[in-house]
């Protein structure tokens, strides 16, 4: 669906994107995360043709933007919808007029414009607001209008550039549910640029981390957050864990299958290992539950606990192992 090969972009002798290689499947929700200035939004603008790149190939549905003409680029952009953090609605047009604007620019039939605009507003749950002005809407409602407008030309790709950053948590959740429903109903491919880890966990299938213009990590959402690469640690930081005296804290990466198997109960009952749960962070992703558990184990029983984890293919890390209590930073 979207193939990017060795894409390179510079600006005034500064390297913005360096050897970007990505493959995004049709119907996938793909996340791009990274610090401010890492190149996320620039890459997104390359995908929709708003930014030109120096070298490499960027292929969307068989169209290579590296060799496209200006006329072909204009037609190509019909395939790409985009939503932004600031909604970008026209304040002098009401809701349905904002949604219909792209179709008017492309000279669609008036009846078709009206029918499709109402259908899209119904899809985003705002048909009853079609005659309202943007000033009468909440932030979440404005973003729903922006989503409907982005879908007006029936695109195959929807690009979301920090689309929920200006919204409160509850409104963010409702917009994410809407995007997930649209993805499922229309089969549209969605690329999400965000700095919010919760957004990635809630709706994305896979995610790439961009740092200083390069892709430094890419995997399924579950694997990215369980493996905790250095690239992810740079984004989310570390937390402090208090380690009891003569104990070792074991950091366990757990998935739905581990949780369902009651592996902690078996560790205690079948292996006679006494432990305490120091901290737990289990989250729900788009498809699975996953997260980390921190348990403290007496140093004398550490080998038994490690053998149990290895036998059951449970990923673990020893956070601390010494005689005296301490507080240590862990990712």
TrEMBL record:
Q: Domain (ABC transporter): give its ranges.
A: 2-237
Q: Which GO terms describe its biological process?
A: amino acid transport
- Recite the UniProt keywords alphabetically: Amino-acid transport, ATP-binding, Cell membrane, Membrane, Nucleotide-binding, Translocase, Transport
Quote the InterPro entries the UniProt record gives: AAA+_ATPase (IPR003593), ABC_transporter-like_ATP-bd (IPR003439), ABC_transporter-like_CS (IPR017871), ACT-like_dom_sf (IPR045865), MetN_ABC_transporter-like (IPR050086), NIL_domain (IPR018449), P-loop_NTPase (IPR027417)
Single GO term (MF): ATP binding
Pfam families xref list: ABC_tran, NIL
**Gene Ontology CC annotations of this record:** plasma membrane
Tell me which family the UniProt entry assigns to this protein: Belongs to the ABC transporter superfamily.
- Record protein name field: D-methionine transport system ATP-binding protein
The species is Tindallia magadiensis
